[in-house]
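2024-03-11 09:14:02 DEBUG pipeline.ingest accepted 1 chain
2024-03-11 09:14:02 DEBUG pipeline.ingest length=128
2024-03-11 09:14:03 DEBUG pipeline.predict start
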Amino acid sequence: MHRPAWLVLLALALMFTLVMAWLPNPPTMSLPLSSDDKAQHMLAFAALSVLASLAFPVAPLSRIAERLSFLGALIEVVQAMPSIHRDCDIFDWLADTAAILAALSIVWVVRQRIRRPRIPSDSVEKFS
């Protein structure tokens, strides 16, 4: 896929995440682990992390992690507003950040493997 497609997917995922986080009574989803709040947070932010790394392939992963972690904190601050009728929980933000770090660690490993220069097989035979 091309970068514009990843940007669109990231924007859609961000909108979905924010709507679900800030609706006073979000609809329940019948997915595995859908009743576990921390699992929902981790799934959302792992997906956002991978999409962000694909949408911004030259951005430092640390910057992506910082911005997404800030987004997780912002979600919790907005949920603390009484008009939202949601609960602010620092452990939700910690779950978000843990998922971000785990997902971007995997992205880092994959990027390293892709960028590693391949040694031609005939040059390996010369040293044997």
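2024-03-11 09:14:41 DEBUG pipeline.report The radius of gyration is 19 Å.
2024-03-11 09:14:41 DEBUG pipeline.predict end
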